[in-house]
Every structure is written in structure tokens, then in C-alpha cells.
Design goal:
Protein name: SpoVA/SpoVAEb family sporulation membrane protein
Radius of gyration: 17 Å
Structural class: mainly alpha
Pfam families: SpoVAC_SpoVAEB
Number of domains: 1
Strand content: under 5%
Organism: Ruminococcus hominis
Order of helices and strands: HHHHHH
Keywords: Membrane, Transmembrane, Transmembrane helix
Length: 118
């Protein structure tokens, strides 16, 4: 049942994003920012953890999960370092995933030799 919940929740999130892209004039970058901010707000309101427990990877893999990760990092850093944690918490929480994406993207560019579009 965990796989089914992850599949349909992740699919629903992607479908909602596709509807936003098709029906509005919002650019994809703005929609991605909206998802990250929504994940952070849901984490702040303590709604994201039960949602993630139910949906598993369907909730943690999309950009909503990244926003929640940033929020959790900021929250822990503020508890530990005070106001300075507002600035450093998001960097430390999101650093591993961001670094992995950059490294693996660079390795993939070596393997597949990408070409610029004309």
C-alpha cells in the first residue's frame, strides 16, 4: 500500500503542477518556487510530517519535500544558534542533496556529451 500511496500522491502533485502550467501564465521557475515555499509553509504548520508519513516518497521527492527540508534545517539551526540560524540552517540542510545533484549532473555530462540547442 505504501507504493500505491506514493504513486498516486506524487502523481497528483505533478498533475496539479501541469494544470498550473497549462491554465495559467506562470513560468515554470515561479511554479517551482511556489512548490518549495508551500513545502516550507506546510512544515511550519506541522502538516507536512503526517502528509509525508502517509505518502512516503510521493511527498518527499517532489519540490515540496525540498522546501520542508529547508524549513527543518532552519528550525534546528535557530534552536541551536539563535537568529543567525535563519541564514545558515537552509544551507546546511539542503547542501547534501544540492551537491549530489550537481556532481551527478556533471558526471552525466561527461558520459553523454550534451550539445547546445540551436
Amino acid at each position: 500500500m505504501d507504493y500505491i500511496n506514493a504513486f498516486w500522491v506524487g502523481g497528483a502533485i505533478c498533475a496539479l503542477v501541469q494544470i498550473l502550467m497549462d491554465r495559467t501564465k506562470m513560468m515554470p521557475g515561479r511554479i517551482m518556487v511556489l512548490l518549495v515555499c508551500s513545502g516550507a509553509v506546510l512544515g511550519f504548520c506541522n502538516l507536512y510530517e503526517p502528509f509525508q508519513t502517509f505518502a512516503g516518497a510521493g511527498a518527499s521527492v517532489p519540490l515540496l519535500g525540498f522546501g520542508n527540508t529547508l524549513w527543518q534545517g532552519v528550525k534546528e539551526a535557530v534552536e541551536k544558534n539563535g537568529l543567525l540560524g535563519c541564514f545558515q540552517g537552509g544551507f546546511t540542510a539542503g547542501a547534501a542533496g544540492t551537491a549530489a545533484a550537481l556532481i551527478f549532473g556533471y558526471i552525466a555530462s561527461w558520459i553523454f556529451e550534451p550539445k547546445m540547442k540551436k
